[in-house]
Design brief:
173 residues, five-stranded antiparallel β-sheet, 17% strand
Amino acid sequence: MGSEGKKSFNYYMRILHRDIGFFLIGLTVIYSLSGIVLIFRDTDLLRHEVIIEKELSPNIEESELGKLLHKRDFEVLKTEGDIVYFQDGTYNKVTGAAKYTEKEFPFFLKKINDLHRANSKNVVHWFTTIYGILLFFLAISSFWMFNAKTKAFRRGIYFASIGLVVALILFLL
């Protein structure tokens, strides 16, 4: 029986890099697409109008109304009798009925954007945190793909350095 040589650290890093990379392909595609869509979140790109009707308490102060409706930059345009008018909607002070329109992404885009923007209160935050850690591992383990004495490794260091400089420039903009 022949004895197998001891596998090197580089060998195991390449194996992990490959397997984790294949495992993360689907989620990486989703994150990249939602990241591209989120760049245009200040536009109506790919959004459609949805009419929302909510029953709120009567006689809510105008200063609280925007918070309850979860609307940024909320501003009352005018009040006529019992009806408060705000951008894209109304609120009836007597009945508490609020009716307004919002622009929303289609279901699939909304779900992947929610995944992309998950915070620590969301149950998927563990998954997204692990995803971030695994991406970090993929970035670092790239340095073990080639022997440090090869031209390919030096080329990798060159491109990693350029990438770091570009990232720092973008960060400072």
